[in-house]
């Protein structure tokens, strides 16, 4: 996270990026609380979201002092309807939703807190394709894929119909060998099998460098058009 320079430790680009993303989230966290006259009473917040909130976002805060100041609870919204999630926010059973989609409901505020702009294909370091720098369409569609899907009714990062720049290219479907609502489970399956996965570069780097998964990165086929995916924080406007 830091490199040593003449003047001391210098934060890396990754550290700056994480700080910027989480400073936005933590500002929203701080704004959620009302002033409390009991100084010794711990602040609490309940974050709503999928596995990515706990496995990726919160895990990067474990070494910070925020857990000394705030009790953070994570509540999974797997397989919940958007109406139910809104109800949790309106009834103060949840304080903040982190999701890949804004919660478009009257009385709900939404703010972009992160963006996944670059994507890679990942596979086990022992995979027969691991020595390639870029996949062809044939490799992409003949391989079995692992898909991260936060819930049964939730969308995957990319549907097959959204992958192409135009209709000239083969509009096939990926062969799905594994689906999971757990990022850790998906990464373990990738590491141990011949599955591949299309994943945001940020997430892939986190699991390779921080979680030490033995995976390789391969560029997706150039024919694919991969649009950025936004991450939103949503909360009840009247909760402040």
From TrEMBL:
InterPro entries: LysR-type_TF
GO molecular function: DNA binding
Keywords annotated in UniProt: DNA-binding, Transcription, Transcription regulation
Gene Ontology terms: biological process: regulation of DNA-templated transcription
Tree of life domain: Bacteria
Keyword DNA-binding: yes
Keyword tRNA-binding tagged: no
Family membership: Belongs to the LysR transcriptional regulatory family.
PANTHER family tied to this protein: HTH-TYPE TRANSCRIPTIONAL REGULATOR LEUO, HTH-TYPE TRANSCRIPTIONAL REGULATOR LEUO-RELATED
Name this polypeptide is given: LysR family transcriptional regulator
């Amino acid at each position: 996270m830091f490199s040593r320079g003449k003047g001391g430790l210098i934060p890396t680009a990754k550290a700056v990026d994480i700080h910027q993303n989480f400073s936005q989230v933590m500002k929203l966290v701080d704004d959620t609380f009302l002033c409390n006259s009991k100084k010794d009473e711990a602040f609490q917040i309940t974050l709503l979201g999928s596995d990515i909130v706990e496995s990726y976002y919160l895990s990067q805060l474990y070494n910070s002092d925020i857990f000394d100041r705030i009790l953070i609870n994570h509540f999974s919204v797997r397989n919940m309807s958007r109406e139910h999630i809104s109800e949790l926010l309106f009834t103060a059973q949840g304080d903040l939703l982190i999701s890949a989609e804004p919660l478009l409901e009257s009385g709900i505020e939404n703010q972009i807190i992160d963006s996944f702009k670059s994507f890679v294909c990942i596979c086990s370091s022992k995979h027969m394709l691991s020595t390639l720098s870029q996949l062809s369409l044939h490799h992409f569609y003949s391989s079995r894929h692992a898909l991260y899907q936060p819930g049964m009714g939730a969308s995957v990062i990319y549907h097959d119909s959204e992958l192409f720049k135009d209709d000239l290219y083969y509009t096939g479907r990926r062969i799905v060998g594994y689906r999971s609502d757990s990022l850790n489970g998906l990464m373990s399956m990738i590491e141990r099998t011949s599955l591949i996965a299309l994943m945001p570069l940020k997430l892939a780097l986190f699991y390779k460098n921080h979680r030490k998964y033995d995976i390789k990165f391969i560029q997706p086929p150039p024919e694919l058009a991969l649009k950025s995916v936004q991450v939103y924080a949503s909360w009840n406007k009247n909760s402040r």
